[in-house]
Every structure is written in structure tokens, then in C-alpha cells.
Automatic annotation (TrEMBL):
Organism field: Streptomyces incanus
Regions crossing the membrane: none
EC number: 1.1.1.-
Listed name of the protein: SDR family NAD(P)-dependent oxidoreductase
Gene3D superfamilies: NAD(P)-binding Rossmann-like Domain (3.40.50.720)
One Pfam family from the record: adh_short_C2
Alphabetical list of InterPro entries matching this protein: NAD(P)-bd_dom_sf, SDR_fam
SUPFAM superfamilies reported in the protein's UniProt record: NAD(P)-binding Rossmann-fold domains
The family this protein is said to belong to: Belongs to the short-chain dehydrogenases/reductases (SDR) family.
Keyword Oxidoreductase: yes
Amino acid sequence: MNPTYDFAGRVAFVTGASSGMGLATARAFAASGAAVALTDIDEAALTSAAEQLTGEGHHVIAIICDVTDEDQVAAAVDRTVDTFGRLDMAYNNAGIQIPPADAADEPAEVFDRVHAVNLRGIWAGMKHELRHMRTQGSGAIVNCSSLGGLVGIPGRASYHASKHGVIGLTGSAALEYAPRGIRINAICPGTIDTPMVSDMIAKGELDRAEAEAGQPINRLGTADEIAQAVLWLCSPGASFVIGVALPVDGGYVAQ
């Protein structure tokens, strides 16, 4: 049984919210009573996700946003505050995966693209969330890194560099804003059963059996399990937790 949270009167902002971990987290925030802004670059999927949550009786808005464009990110955060009056919690989740590549052969444009989304996108989200939270003197932010932010794997250098960067960004900002009443942490998901991972398996970029065997729990994680970790980090139960990079990976990095 998952813990329950009372986020009534609170406002959450989620990037990459049209599917997978982002949608699961947006739904979990909403089910706990929060008003939620869902953002994503995929307009059709985002509209569908928002309609689902609205149909379930939740208070949500959908905002099309490309996290590589800082102006779009700033506008999305501002619209959230204009609509709901405040911003209490944020999950900077938007990210992409790239095909495995020999470190000597990977094109610069692939490196630039994965960093534009996975690192710069989180930097932009956190920056503009903090602009509002520091005025309030309160808030909680969770940035999505990866088990790839904690370890290295052959063929994944550029992707892992982006995720290591998220942890550095998180730790430094957490120390800066802890005295101002704002908690910033990161989560490091293992291999999670999401549409992105399904796509990697379908393309032959990931072997499901190997991925399951590589996690001591011997299965893939679920998006709901990531959502529960995010909600805990945003809850009063984690009030003394600041600047961590929390593995949610079935034991992968403990090996």
C-alpha cells in the first residue's frame, strides 16, 4: 500500500507529463489534492493526458512546452502561477534517450541535443520555478537524473554525462536555497517500464531480459514507483532531505 499525502491547496508543475513517469507523477499529485500543470512538447499526447485527469475530477491545466527553449519554460511556469496563484512543487522530468554509440564516433549534434533536453531543460525549469518559490519562501523541487547519473555504462557516455550534470546542478542549487525554505533533490530511476523504454526495446537498443537481470529485484520498475518517490521528496515526510540523488532502481547501484 502506498502512503497518502494531503496536497490540497498546493500547486505542482510537471515537465514531460504526457506519458510515463511524468504522467504517473502528475496523476499522483492530482490524486493527493494538488492542482497540477502538465507540460510537454507532444501536444496530442499532452491533451489526451490532461483530458484523462480532468475526466477523473482533477484540477489540471496543459501547457505545450519545449524545455530546450528557456522562454517557453519561463512562460509555462508563469502561466501556472497566474492560473493557480502559487507554485509549491515541481518535478523536472522531461528527458530523452539516445542510441548507444562508441565515444569516439558520436556526433556533436547528438551530444548537444541530449544535453539541451536532459540538462539545460532541467536547469531552465528549476531556474524559473525558483524565481517564484523564493518569493514565497517555500517549495520543493525534484529533478530527474538516472542511474546513469551515478554510474557509467559503455556506449552511454553522452547520455550519462547529461544525467551526472543534473546531480551536480541539483546539489549546488540545494545548498543555495535550503536557507531560503526551498528543498531541491534528484531522483535516479533505474530501468522503468515506460513508453521510452518500450521504444528502446523495440529498436534493439535495450534487451529487456538483460535489463531485468541487471536490477537485483529482477524486474523493471513502474512509473508509479517513481511517482511515489517524487511525492515523498515533496512531502513534509522528507522535510530534512536536501540535495540527495535518490536511487529508485531496484538495487542496481547497490551492486
